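Technical appendix A lists one of the benchmark inputs used to test multi-chain prediction within the project. The record comprises four sequence entries:
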Amino acid sequence: MTQLPDSIEDSVISAILGGRLRPGTRLGEAKLAEVYGVSRTRVREAMMRLETRGIVHVSARRGWFVVEPSATEARAAFQARRVIETGMLRDLHTLPGDAVAHLRAHVEEEREALHTGHVGSRTCLLGDFHIHLAHAFGNPFLTDILRDLTARTTLVSMLYQSDQDAAASSDDHAGIVTLLADGDYAGAARLMDEHIRRVEDGLDLAAAPDPLAGLREILSPGAPA
Amino acid sequence: MTQLPDSIEDSVISAILGGRLRPGTRLGEAKLAEVYGVSRTRVREAMMRLETRGIVHVSARRGWFVVEPSATEARAAFQARRVIETGMLRDLHTLPGDAVAHLRAHVEEEREALHTGHVGSRTCLLGDFHIHLAHAFGNPFLTDILRDLTARTTLVSMLYQSDQDAAASSDDHAGIVTLLADGDYAGAARLMDEHIRRVEDGLDLAAAPDPLAGLREILSPGAPA
DNA sequence: CTCAACAGTCTTGTATACAAGATTGGTGCG
DNA sequence: CGCACCAATCTTGTATACAAGACTGTTGAG
C-alpha cells in the first residue's frame, strides 16, 4: 500500500499519517541525525522543508516540534480540504478508467483494517483514501497540497479527542466510490462535503488540546520509580 | 498596495509576481548573499523553502533557477487554480462586509495601471487580485496555496508568450466583484472559471518555451562588440 | 581550421566549529 | 521549607572551511 519513504520528510509525513507521531512531539536534530545516519545539516534541511509545508515548526533554540494546530487552524484546514476536494470532484471529470477499481480495492483494505483493528494502519488508510483519490485525478499540485492538508487534519484528529467512527468514514468512502462508478461526480462532491463535515463535527474543537496528553498516556498504567 | 517584503522568499515571490524575475533566471547563492547582506547559509535556507513551494529548483552544482514550468505543469497549475478558486466561491460565503469595497478599489488600481501602462505593476496587480480575493475569505491555507500557484501561473504566462489582454482580465475581475456585491457567489464562481480558462487559452502551450528568450530580447537591438 | 583533452575557475554540497539562548539542577538566603 | 539566583548542560543558529562536480577557456594534435 504505502511504499517505504526514502527521505526524512516522507518518513515524518508517513509517521504522522499513520498516527505514530503525535502533535507536539519534539524532533531533536541530533536525535534524528543519528536515527537516519546523516549529519545535522541534512536533518535541518528536511525540517525546514517540512516547516514550509506546515508540518513541523521550530521553537528558537528549543527544537523542532510536530505542529499542534489550534482550533482555528483546525477549522481552516478542514475547510480548505472541503473546498479543494469537492472542487476537484465538481470541476474535474478526468478519472481514468481503472481509478474506480483501485479506489474500491482501497476501501476493501480499509474494511479489513477495521476488522483486524490495527489502529495505526486504519488511521493511515483512512487518510490515504483522500490522497489516492486526488492522485487519480492526475494533478500533482492538488495531490501534494492535499497530502499536506490531510497530514494536518490527521494531527487535528489526534489532538481534539476525535470520536470519529472509522467504520462510518469507510462507509462514506465506499459511497463516494459507488457514485464515481456511476459517473455521478456532483453526487460524489456532495457526499464528500458531508463526509468531511462529519469528521470535523466529530471533533471537540471547543476543548483546549491537552498539552500533557502524551505524558498522561505513558504514565497511566503506573509509573516506575 | 504591496508591502515591501522582509524575507528573501517574499522578495523573490514578489519579484516574480511583478514580472521582474523571469523563468529560468539563475539565482546564485553568493550573489544573493551579497545583495541581501547575509551569509550563504541563509540564502540556501530561503532557496530550499522556495523549492518546496515549487518556485525555484536547484540544478546540482550549477545553481538555483526560477522554475520554467512545462506545458503539462502549466495546464496543471491553471487547473489547480480553477479548482480552488471556484471551489472557494462556491463553498465559502464568508466574505466580510468590507471585502467587496476593497476588491473594488483594487480593480480601480488595475484600471489606472492599464492606462499608465507600467507593465510591471500591471502584471503584479492582476495576480494580486486573486490573492486578495483568497485573503478576503480568511483561510490562510488557501491564501498561501493560491499565492504560490499564482506565482507559477505568472511564470507560465511569461514563458508561453501570453497574448493575455490585460484589459479583458481586469474586466473579468470587475465582473466578479460586481457579482459578489450582489451576493451571487455561484455566478462569481462561473465567471471565475471562465476567466481562468480565458487566461490559459491565451497561452500558446503548444509552442516549446524559448530557452533563449531572455538573450534574444537583450541582443535584438544590435549587439555591441 | 576543427575538435578533443585538460587545467583552471566557479558554484554548490556537506560537515564541522563555535556562538547564543533555553533548560535544568543545585545552592544558599530568607 | 520556599524561592530566587546561578552554574552546568543541552540544543539550535550561523558562519566558515573544504570537498566535489560543472563549466570555461586554452592548448595541441590531426
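The mean pLDDT of chain B is 90. The beta strands of chain B are 26-27, 56-59, 63-66. Comparable benchmark entries are summarised in Table A2.
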